[in-house]
Design goal:
7 helices, Probable nicotinate-nucleotide adenylyltransferase, globular, nucleotide-binding, alpha/beta, 194 residues, 18% strand, 6 strands, 32% helix
């Protein structure tokens, strides 16, 4: 089976991300999942993003015990901007014996037509989609050339923005939003304070 790729800023990694990891792994579409934290996403305000090393460490804390998951720092070795197409092409070149599947939420599916040279991505990967709260499941017509698989997913309605806002107000979110290990890491490293 193929290798799943789960890209994200993970700022921070939360229970919604964790639920998606389990859904992707249990989909029957992939045999393993590579999580690819992005050093500097081209579409986000860099001032709101924790240092890459901290985000990497938090993902590692969250998934270290999950069988079939590994972290990839491929984007540390690719020049910015870190477009998905560039990263997938680099992975395909580095691992020619792998078949890759891009694992995304249904919210990301809706925004894909705005990505850099998004149509070329279909030459490298199929898509595995997990539903997100309040987001249409059906793909935009612009994605007709993609092979799209869907996985059963128990949605966890939480966002990184919501978590950062809580922390900025002096609250560490509860375990329903982030793991206790990540909460401790955020507290100990004084992340997301305004």
């Amino acid at each position: 089976m193929a290798t799943g790729l789960f890209f994200g800023t993970f700022n921070p990694f939360h229970r919604g991300h964790e639920a998606m990891v389990y859904s992707f792994l249990s989909s029957g579409t992939i045999s393993e999942l590579w999580i690819v934290p992005t050093p500097s996403p081209p579409h986000k305000d860099q001032a709101e993003i924790a240092p890459f090393r901290d985000r990497w460490n938090m993902v590692e804390l969250a998934v270290s015990g999950i069988k079939g998951v590994r972290l990839s720092d491929i984007e540390r070795h690719i020049s910015a901007p870190h477009y998905t197409l560039k990263t997938i092409a680099a992975l395909a070149g580095r691992y020619p014996d792998h078949g890759f599947v891009l694992c995304i939420g249904s919210d990301t599916l809706q925004t894909m037509p705005s990505w850099y040279k998004y149509k070329k991505i279909s030459g490298y990967v199929s898509l595995l989609v997990a539903a997100r709260p309040g987001i249409p499941k059906d793909p935009p017509e612009a994605l007709d050339e993609f092979t799209i698989h869907y996985c059963k997913h128990d949605m966890v309605d939480v966002s990184s923005t919501e978590i950062r806002n809580e922390i900025a107000e002096g609250n560490i979110p509860g375990s329903g939003m982030i793991s206790p290990e990540i909460a401790a890491y955020i507290r100990n490293n004084n992340l997301y304070r305004s």
